[in-house]
């Protein structure tokens, strides 16, 4: 599968790509009492944000505000990774998503 330099530079340790999640839901939606459709985990800092189909698009806002451009799906059974800079979705060998951890 195609790769980009942003995704390929993220380390995989014990089957986890980058930093483990900091919350189990979108932290910013929880703060404001909002809801989300799907979750994404920032592989750089572990922040969990809501997807672009959610009303607040917190994952994209996080990437824009913090410069953390690689997110992994935080949905059960989905292991794909997305780079906002390169607009690329792919999977990383050995990196599984674990929303229940």
Number of helices: 3
Mind telling me the C-alpha Rg? 12 Å
Query: Helix coverage percent of residues?
Result: 10-25%
- From the N-terminal CA to the C-terminal CA, the straight-line distance is 27 Å
What overall form do the CA principal axes indicate?
Answer: globular
Extended strand count = 7
Q: What do the pLDDT scores average to?
A: 88
* SS-based class: alpha+beta
The H-and-E topology, N to C, reads as: HEEHEEHEEE
> Biggest β-sheet, characterized?
5 strands, antiparallel
In terms of quaternary structure, what is this? single chain
User: Residue ranges: pLDDT <50 for 5 or more in a row?
Assistant: none
Q: How are the strands ordered across the major sheet?
A: 4-3-5-6-7
Strand content range: 15-25%
